[in-house]
Each structure stands twice: as C-alpha cells, then as structure tokens.
Predict the 3D structure of the following.
Amino acid sequence: MTSQLSAGPGPDAPISVPQLRSVTFKRPAMSDHGLLDYATRDDSLMWSRQGEGVIGFGQIARFEATGRERFALARQWWGDLTSASAVQDDLEVPGTGLIAFGAFSFSFSSSYASRLIVPKIVVGRNDEFSWITYTVTDPHAILTLEAAESELAELLDDYSAEQELSTGIDQLITGQISEDYYKDSVRKGVEIIESGAITKLVLARDAVAQLGAPIAVAQVLRQLALRYADCWTYSVDGLIGATPEMLVRVRGEIAEARVLAGTLDRATAPAGDTEYAHRMLVDDEKQRHEHQLAIDSLTEQLGPLASGMDAPAEPFVLQLPNVWHLASDVKASLAHRNDGSVPSVLDLVEVFHPTAAVCGTPTKEAGRILRELEGMDRGPYAGPVGWIDTHGNGEFGIALRGGVIESPTSIRLYAGCGIVAASDADAELAESWAKMRPMREALGI
C-alpha cells in the first residue's frame, strides 16, 4: 500500500495514511560483515557504516512531495502515519520499531520528488545486538518472529545477480555541465566572492556513467561499504553512494553532526611525506577559512535549538581512500520546547539544510547564485538522505559521493567543490573528479 503526495497543498491539508501494524524482535549477533551479508538485492534500502545501521526490503507505505513545503509535509505525513499505526517495540533503541527511509531534493525548485519509504522488513544492527522489524497492512496477519524470518528468507532468496566490474564498453560521458563550463562557473564565482556579495560558493557538476550491462546495485553498495568503511553507505530508491558527511543524527535529546569542508586529493600526495595532509589542510589558510565558514553556519543554526553545545576549536584530518578532508564533529543537547518535546531529526534536517559545506555562505544568497551559475537541477544530490523512527530519532547524511540511477544501465554522478576567493578553476575541476572516484571505482569505470 502506498500513500503519495506529488505536490504540496500546504502543511495543514489532510494527507491520507495507511494503518500499519509493526513489531520488532531481537535477533542473534551477526557475522563480522554485519549488514553487508544482507545487501543482496538491488532494490533494498540501506543506511550502514562499519557493518551497523539498517537495511530495508519491500515497500509498505510511501510519501512524495515537491516544493518549499516538502519537509513540513513529510513531518506531517510521518506523524499521522505513526499515530494511526500499531507499533510493538520492546527494544526501544534508535532504529527499532517502525522506521522510514528518506531522500530529499537539494532545492525546493527541483523536479525530484522528495520521499519517505516504509519497508515491509527491516534488519538492523548496533554495537550491542541486531533486530528485525516486520510491518504489514493486513489487520489479521500473524506477527511472529517466525513469520518475520520466513518473509526475510523469501526476500533474500530472490537475490540480484552480480556483474563483472567492467564489460570493456563502459564509459563516462559529459553530463549537463561540461568541464569548460564548470571552470568558467568557478571563475565567475570567484569574481562574485571578490565583489563581497558572498564569502563562499559551492559549485557542482555531473557526469553520466553508461554501462554495457545492468547496474548491479547491491554489488556496488558492498564495494562502497568495504572501501569506504568510515562513510555512511546509502541506498534510497535509486539514489546510492557513500557519504562522509553526517548532516544530523538524533538520539533522544542529543544531536550530532559531522562537518566537512576542505579537501585534498590523495593521488597528488608525494610518496613518504607523512605530514603532507596536515600541512596542506590544517596549516593552509584557504582550507581553514572554508572549514570555519561551514562550522559557523552550523552552530549559528543549531544554537537556538540547543541547551548546550560542543564545537571543537580545531578540526581533524579525515582520511578516506580517495581524499583527505578537514572535519569537525559537533554535538549538542537539544532544548525542550513548550510541550516538553525536543526537535525530531526531520525538524533539524529542515533547519540545517542546505549547509554552507554544500551551498555557500551566506546560504540564502549563495543558493540563489549557484542556481544561476550551475545551470542544472541537482535533484537529490547534496540533499538529506537517511532514516527516521517513531520517536524522532534518526540519521540523515548529505547525499555526496554518489549518483542517481536513471536507467538499468545509466547512472548520473555528481560532485561539488567549495569556492572561495583563492580558488583555482583547474584545481577545483580536479577535485571534482577525485570526489567522483568512489562511485567510478565501485562501478568499475
């Protein structure tokens, strides 16, 4: 059963929701691979890091919306759905019980429909135990652990075929933005920054991977999860990737975010120079300036919603297989509202998005300028992707280092770079290629 809304009539308009029955059971410990053992279907929903997280199968309810009110409408739909549903969850930890996977467009003007999807089966794992959640619409269905495991086994038996990593005819072609157009946009962005209109601008470009065989999504996800274990591997309805950036995680009254701004391609590093990343990132004025803009933007938005905050003064260097990043982890205690509640993860997603790290500073003016300079619809690229449970807990990353599947053999890849006054067009183009490397490797291109 699905519940859909294609265009926002307004956040106060009634939205039809199904009545669901959901039950969660504790399961034995998993193997060392964790959730990767369950990443066997191309149509699965996934959010995983270092073998932990959640993976979903099937679709029991669905919401879609476009426009400025997409976040508000999603919150309303999720609230109405959970209120109408019978949820049995004796574990009551983040990710257990009824959950929805979500992917939102970067821009309110995008033609991409933001969505929430409730799976029929969810398998989850944290650092203590694993679980299975079984959700149905049938009021007479028997919801037992045996029934849930039987349904899961049937789903896993219908696994997706794997492919050779390269067919020899795979290719990467120019997308909406050519290399020359991108470099010209970077130069124009620098001119705008030098005029004083904005401080930072994040410009993105795309490329299309055309494969000689159908995309083996589950195989790609496993490749990403194994190679980029410190990233969050995601899959939501054709949007796939492995992001290093956590937009916001909410667990009870604690909110956390990982901010990245400042990038260095590891392929350019001199052999044997162990201080190269620190020197080129931590000690570099341009990189530190770009990073501080992103931190300031986040803490300014989070401040009114928090009763306490820990934002470290010094960033650290995050080492990934393709790049190094300047990174900072911000943690806050959420302030109680008048009714005693704290903001949910979807509340904070709307407040934080878009961040300075994917848009610019100040974000409103930077957003207007990047729409003019980029000349493309980002769709869900750099938008929020993740999950939410019935208690408002959840994790939403920024949809980076990924792509959108457009046909069985075609996927559009995206990458963006932070532009400041000291930016060089050729260097930014090279950085964009480095950021596409995780998907190119996983696809075998």
In short: The chain has nine helices and 23 strands.
